[in-house]
Amino acid sequence: MTQAAAAPLRVAIHWRFVGGCGRPAFDAAALTAEERAAACRFLRPADAALWLESRFLLRTTLAARLGVAPDRLTFRRSRHGKPALDGLLRFNLSHAGGLALLAVAEDRLAELGIDVERADRPVTEALIRAATAPAEAAALLALPEARRGAAFLELWTRKESLLKAAGCGLSQPVRAVALDPRDGRLLALPPALGRPEEHRLLKLALPAPYLAVLAVRDPLRRPVLPEMTPPA
């Protein structure tokens, strides 16, 4: 008897632009006193706003799923600092350049990672060599300079989202995660992160100039279905 195909893992992608656009201010009561105090330590008001609105997106989205007040959520952290909640909810948050992204799924086995970058961010040769394997760096540096930065950031978002899904962040060497520079396919990774076939890397459709990748580590190797929500 042929085994039925596994149902896809559905991952909701919530996103929020930060910094005006005529929107009313978010409700600071949804955040904890510690989060509001942390925002005061940023030197630039734009960075503080991005932090606060990212935390607002995180708390209000998860609280709505769980039926609790946003400021009552209590996060635990892994050995490498990845936040989590008890239960089935899996999530990961990223923010850059005025945009916050949150990936959420209800699953006991899968782990999520997400990363967003601006494609117009400056990229130097030194950064390429520091963050990529030799073969990746050679391929990137052979590109015309006008294309090099965006191509590097395509690889970088894949690497960082994968490391976040694995729960280790940048505690593992980024250069040890090897991707095919032509199509971003995962070729090799450190043994501590499992096998390449356990990981799914999906580019998300966002307005320019943003690049974003969703990573899912799933021992069942199910297909992944990202579902973009309207911007908050």
Low-confidence stretches: none
CATH hierarchy, class: Alpha Beta
What is the residue-mean pLDDT, rounded to a whole number? 89
The domain tally reads 1
SS strand fraction? 25-35%
Reported for the largest beta sheet, the result is: 4 strands, mixed
The coarse silhouette is globular
Give, in order, the helices and strands: EHHEEEEEHHHEEEEE
Structural class: alpha+beta
What is the CATH architecture descriptor? Answer: Alpha-Beta Complex
Q: What is the CATH topology descriptor?
A: Ribosomal Protein L22, Chain A
Radius of gyration computed on alpha carbons: 18 Å
What order do the strands of the largest sheet run in, or round the barrel if closed? 4-5-1-11
Structure description:
By secondary structure, this protein is of the alpha+beta class. The chain has one domain (10-228): Ribosomal Protein L22, Chain A. Helices cover 28% and strands 26% of the residues. 37% of the residues are buried.
